[in-house]
C-alpha cells in the first residue's frame, strides 16, 4: 500500500489505516529524518444515509506513537453553522462518540469535523457527507378547495438533489378522518438510477396521475372535488425497513341555501357556508354581501365548521375562508328575487293548502259522526231482536 516517488523521494501510503500511525524514518547517507504520523478515522452511522428525525452518531478514533492528546472537536453542518453534539464516550482518548440532533431533509450536504489540540499542535478538518432522504414539503401542509373545483396534491422528493444512489419505495394513502380506515391510492418505486414508476391502486376513488409533472414529484389530481374527498393524504417513503411520511390535509368548502330557489317577496332564506373539518385557530369563515354594509357580514366562531346568515332581500353573497387575514378560497351564492306571479302562486298554494286541510278535517268529523250513529242504530236493533226471542210464546188450540 505504499510507493516512493523516485524524483523527490516522497513516500505515499495508500488506503491509510489506524495501524499505519507511528514514526517514519528516512536515511540518506549520514542524514536521518524522522516524521511522526498521527492518524484519525471518522465514521458515521448508517453510512451517512438517513431519513428525517433519525439521530446520527459520529465515531472519531486516533492513533499515534506518542501519548494520545485530549482533542477538542467542533462540528460544522452543511450551512457552516456550529453544531453542538452530545459526547457519549471519551475514556481512553482513543475513541470519541458524538451524538447529533434529529436530522431534517435540509441537513443534507457536506459537514466538517474540526479536530484541535495544543500539544501536539493539531488543526485538522475532516469532511463527511450527510444525506437525508425526504420531502421538501412541510411536515403537515393544509390545502383548501371548493366543491367542483380541480385540485392537485404534490409531494416533492429530494433524492435527485442529494444524489441518492439507492433504490426505495413508497405509497400514497388517504383517510377521511384521523384514525379512520386508510385507503391506498397508489404505490411507487424509485430505482438506483433515479427512475420513477407509479401504479394506481384504488378504483373507487376518482383521481388522476398527471403524465407531465415536475421532476422528483409524487402528484395526484382531483378533477372535480367532492365534499367527501376531504381528509388527510399521506405520502410514505420506505428505505431499508425505515419509514418517513408527509401529510397534506385537504379542507373542502361548500355553500347552500334553505329553502332553495328564488326568494319570494317578504320571505326569508338561510345561506349556509360549511367546511369539511374544523379550522385552525388562525382561520375562520365569513359571509359578506357584495356592495353591502358592515351589517351584512357574518363570521364563524373559533373552530366552527359552519356559518349561517339570514337573507330577506335579493343580492350576491360571498363566503370567504380566511387564514391569517389572507383569503384562501371563496364561493358566491346569488340570491334572486322571485317574480310576482310566483309570490301569488305561493300565497295561493298556502291558502289552498289551508282550505284543503280544513275540508279534510270537516269530512273526517262528519264521517265520524255518521259512523257513530250507524253503530248505535245497529246496537239498538240487535237488542230488540234479542228481547223478542226471549219473550216469544206458542198457543195451541184445544
TrEMBL record:
The protein's name: CD4 protein
Keywords: Membrane, Transmembrane, Transmembrane helix
Any Pfam family hit: Tcell_CD4_C
Domain Ig-like: start-end pairs: 266-330
Keyword Phosphoprotein belongs to the record: no
Nucleus keyword on record: no
Domain of life: Eukaryota
Transmembrane segments: 341-371
Lineage, highest ranks first: Eukaryota, Metazoa, Chordata, Craniata, Vertebrata
Amino acid at each position: 500500500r505504499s510507493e516512493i516517488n523516485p524524483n523527490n523521494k516522497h513516500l505515499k501510503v495508500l488506503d491509510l489505516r489506524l495501524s499505519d500511525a507511528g514514526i517514519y524514518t528516512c536515511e540518506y547517507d549520514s542524514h536521518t529524518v524522522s516524521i511522526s504520523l498521527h492518524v484519525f478515522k471518522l465514521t458515521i452511522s448508517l453510512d451517512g444515509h438517513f431519513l428525517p428525525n433519525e439521530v446520527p452518531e459520529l465515531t472519531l478514533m486516533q492513533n499515534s506513537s506518542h501519548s494520545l492528546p485530549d482533542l477538542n472537536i467542533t462540528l460544522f453542518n452543511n450551512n457552516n453553522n456550529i453544531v453542538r453534539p452530545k459526547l457519549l464516550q471519551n475514556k481512553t482518548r482513543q475513541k470519541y462518540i458524538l451524538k447529533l440532533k434529529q436530522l431534517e431533509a435540509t441537513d443534507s450536504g457536506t459537514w466538517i469535523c474540526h479536530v484541535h489540540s495544543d500539544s501536539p499542535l493539531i488543526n485538522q478538518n475532516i469532511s463527511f457527507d450527510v444525506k437525508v432522504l425526504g420531502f421538501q414539503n412541510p411536515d403537515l401542509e393544509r390545502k383548501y378547495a371548493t366543491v367542483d373545483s380541480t385540485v392537485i396534491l404534490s409531494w416533492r422528493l429530494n433524492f435527485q438533489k442529494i444524489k441518492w444512489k439507492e433504490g426505495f419505495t413508497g405509497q400514497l394513502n388517504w383517510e377521511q378522518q384521523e384514525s379512520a380506515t386508510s385507503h391506498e391510492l397508489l404505490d411507487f418505486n424509485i430505482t438506483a438510477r433515479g427512475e420513477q414508476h407509479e401504479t394506481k391502486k384504488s378504483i373507487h376513488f376518482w383521481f388522476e396521475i398527471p403524465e407531465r409533472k415536475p421532476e422528483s414529484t409524487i402528484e395526484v389530481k382531483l378533477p372535480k372535488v367532492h365534499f367527501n374527498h376531504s381528509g388527510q393524504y399521506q405520502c410514505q417513503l420506505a428505505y431499508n425497513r425505515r419509514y418517513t411520511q408527509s401529510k397534506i390535509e385537504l379542507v373542502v368548502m361548500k355553500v347552500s341555501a334553505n329553502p332553495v330557489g328564488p326568494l319570494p317577496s317578504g320571505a326569508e332564506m338561510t345561506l349556509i357556508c360549511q367546511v369539511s373539518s374544523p379550522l385552525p385557530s388562525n382561520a375562520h369563515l365569513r359571509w359578506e354581501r357584495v356592495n353591502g354594509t358592515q351589517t351584512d357580514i357574518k363570521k364563524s366562531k373559533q373552530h366552527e365548521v359552519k356559518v349561517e346568515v339570514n337573507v330577506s332581500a335579493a343580492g350576491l353573497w360571498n363566503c370567504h375562508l380566511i387564514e391569517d387575514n389572507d383569503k384562501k378560497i371563496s364561493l358566491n351564492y346569488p340570491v334572486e328575487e322571485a317574480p310576482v306571479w310566483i309570490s301569488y302562486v305561493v300565497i295561493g298554494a298556502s291558502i289552498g293548502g289551508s282550505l284543503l286541510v280544513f275540508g279534510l278535517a270537516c269530512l273526517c268529523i262528519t264521517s265520524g259522526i255518521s259512523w257513530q250513529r250507524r253503530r248505535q242504530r245497529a246496537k239498538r236493533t240487535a237488542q230488540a231482536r234479542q228481547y223478542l226471542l226471549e219473550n216469544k210464546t206458542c198457543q195451541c188450540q184445544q
